[in-house]
Amino acid sequence: MSTARLTIDLDAVTANWRALDALSAHGTETGATVKADAYGLGIAPVARALAHAGARSFFVAAAEEGAALRETLGDAVRIFVFSGHMAGDTDMIGDLGLIPLLNSIEQMTRHIEALPMHPFGMQLDSGMNRLGMEPEEWAAIRDIALRQKPQLIISHLACADEPDHPMNAQQLSQFHEMTVSTGVPLSLAATGGILLGRDYHFDVTRPGIGLYGGLPFEDAAPAAHLSIPVIQTRDLEPGEPVGYSNSWIAEEPTRIATIAAGYADGISRKISNQAVLFADDVPCPLVGRVSMDLITVDISHLDHVPRTLDLLCAHQTVDDLADIAGTIGYEILTSLGARYARRYRGGAA
User: Which of 155, 187, 266, 302 could form a disulfide linkage to 337, CB 3.0–4.6 angstroms apart?
Assistant: First the structure.
């Protein structure tokens, strides 16, 4: 087998969901955010496992994602769409019972006119300046919106992964002010908001990255393991280069393993000459440039040629790799390529 294997631990995903659920009061519902193909890990098996664990409210970015999720889970769950009711989404929303989180007066008008009496929610902008109705806009249509009986009112925190950032308290105060006396269930917290404490939890939380093993949930169990096959090895003499642009040159006799993955598989070129891979518990330096399909690794210190080397494993999380690449764990996960042979372990796969 010449393709890398990505193993997704569904038991880890559901354990993370239960751990985040346990941080909330009994009356708070813990939902699950499964947008972007469950952060790159596969929306169908991940959502089935989460539903089996008890999740009943799911959040996606677009109606098309909601359609795929409805096909997987059937009618027993609520599916909220962050992008709201976009032009062209009406049939999908209506036929599949999706719940758009309306972001503007334009979306609200579209929804009420096209799908009267169909469930919806509202998204408010409490200071992030990205999606949702700003305070003045919300004040202008609040009474009209509430008469239509929204199922949920949400907002989103900009700095929840920085617990001491003053923006968190500012947004919490703004959300309280915008939603006082609405009588509608409220949601403010994703993973970072859950970790800020129960003042941020309200009626529904919607964890995302924490389900998949990423920060800021430091106690999360890793959910992804990436094992890459060794295609070929070669022995270099001092002075011989490896890879494009001769970016690494052997200073001593070196054994190089060439492995079957590259930037076409979502492995950033920024980790060239910086990252390590693992042969069981032994780190092996990545040397040379990450190319489209291949990576070269120094295995001189091993007493054997391994069949595979691990890029994501117990010794190197998505956030460890993100630190090397100068990015965040979200990007590492959602970049995982389509060529990987995906294997699901545990859960309801």
Answer: 266
Q: Is 244 a catalytic residue?
A: yes
Which residues constitute the domain of residue 303?
A: 224-345
Task: Give residue for tokens 């193993």.
Answer: 7
**What whole-number distance in Å separates Cα of residue 212 and Cα of residue 190?**
13
DSSP 214-259: -TT-TTPPP-EEEEEEEEEEEEE-TT-EESGGG-EE-SS-EEEEEE
Say if residue 61 is in the same domain as residue 175.
yes
Evaluate if residue 10 carries a pLDDT over 90.
Answer: yes
Which position among 35, 39, 212, 344 bears the catalytic label?
35
Q: Number of folded domains in the chain?
A: 2
d(CA 80, CA 31) in angstroms, rounded, equals 10
169, 171, 175, 177 alpha-carbon torsion, rounded to 10°: 70
Task: Establish whether the linkage from the previous residue to 119 is cis, with ω within 30° of 0.
Answer: no
Question: What is the model's pLDDT at position 1?
Answer: 60
* For residue 347, pLDDT beyond 80: no
**Do 244 and 332 belong to one domain?**
yes
How far is CA 120 from each of CA 80, 151, 188, 307, rounded to the nearest angstrom? 8, 6, 17, 52
Query: Residue 349: is its pLDDT beyond 50?
Result: no
The answer to whether residues 206 and 269 belong to one domain is no
Q: Are strands 204-205 and 153-154 parallel, antiparallel or unpaired?
A: unpaired
Q: Where does residue 76 rank: exposed (0-12), middle (13-18), buried (19+ CB within 10 A)?
A: exposed
Q: In this structure, are residues 100 and 111 in contact, taking their beta carbons and an 8 Å threshold?
A: yes
Our answer to whether residue 35 is catalytic in this structure is yes
> Across the chain, where does the E strand assignment appear?
5-9, 29-30, 32-33, 57-60, 78-81, 99-102, 121-123, 153-154, 186-187, 204-205, 224-236, 241-242, 248-249, 254-259, 276-279, 282-287, 295-298, 308-312, 341-345
Is 50 in a helix, a strand, or coil?
Answer: helix
**Which one from 39, 212, 244, 344 is the annotated catalytic residue?**
244
